[in-house]
Amino acid sequence: MCTSSLAQSSDQIRVAIEYGLGYAPLYIVAKKPEFIHKYLPGAEISIQHLAGGPAVRDALLAGTVDIGGLGVAPVIQAADKGVDLKIAVGMAFVPTALITYRDDIKSVRDLKAGDKVNVVSSSSLQAMEMKMAGDAYFNNPSALDGNMATMSHPAAVTAVEKHELTGEFATPPFIRTLLREPGMHVILGNKDFAAANCMPILAAASGHFHDRTKEYDAVVHAIQDAIAWMNANPRAAAEFLAADQGGTMSVDEWLAEIQQPGVKFSAVPTGEAALAKFMQKIGSVSKAASYDDLTWPNLHGIGGS
User: For 289-302, what is each residue's pLDDT tens digit?
Assistant: First the structure.
């Protein structure tokens, strides 16, 4: 699926995304050609799923993909290192919830050595929330580092259901999937910390793709259109996702995911600079990047933060 960027023709756009509802705008652009063809007739889009923001970031920097859906923390880390990678357009606010089946665990304070919870990657928002919890409850941002496991959301859901993993720090639709199971309950979430209430899911691009102005602009506009379409036609979006995903979830289930509290699709990212400040506080980055540091110019001056 991936080809060298040097061999790539201008009408080929390669997309990488993580797993979850928040990536739907970019997924829809990749799967419904009319969105990109409005701006770039004849364009062909390939898509691949990767487990974790660092994997998407590395693919963008290696030039094996052009546009990537990922969490914001890996972009903040890239900015700290002076890497040529920035946010191209926002996509979604989604809730996060650390879910476990263990009756004896009511809070992260109850996690013992050997209790592992999935955070997808060491630089995900969920990993940062674990560090926020460590800072708040133990006065040590690293207090819960030993409790973190990293795997894809689908793999973690299965592991928790089989009681092979203590918990999963989930996003939609995996939150509902787990909470349908008896005994599952939430012990932590983004609502618990102000710095976690940022837009966690974005589309980013390297300078190489940003310099391909025609293609870059087309993808950004297509994602904006997909967001507008989802917001105006949530049932149509749910019907598409239900059909495309092979009926693993019904139309009504997808609609409930799209319309649940805490989910908002938007092209304007907010809260990113606040998360960068927290990451600087705990030493995850050496300096706190500003909103403009983190974004390409098309996102400047439109109310982001």
Answer: 999 999 999 999 99
Token look-up 């050595």 returns 113
Run of H or E residues at 152: none
CATH fourth-level superfamily of 97-196: Periplasmic binding protein-like II (3.40.190.10)
Quote the pTM value.
0.90
Distance of CA 25 to CAs 62, 194, 271, Å?
A: 24, 26, 20
Q: Is 50 exceeded by the pLDDT of residue 173?
A: yes
5-93+200-299: what fold? D-Maltodextrin-Binding Protein; domain 2 (3.40.190)
* Helices assigned H by DSSP within the chain: 24-31, 33-37, 53-62, 72-80, 125-138, 153-161, 174-179, 207-210, 213-232, 234-244, 251-259, 272-281, 291-294
Q: What is the pLDDT of residues 231-258, one digit of tens each?
A: 999 999 999 999 988 778 999 999 999 9
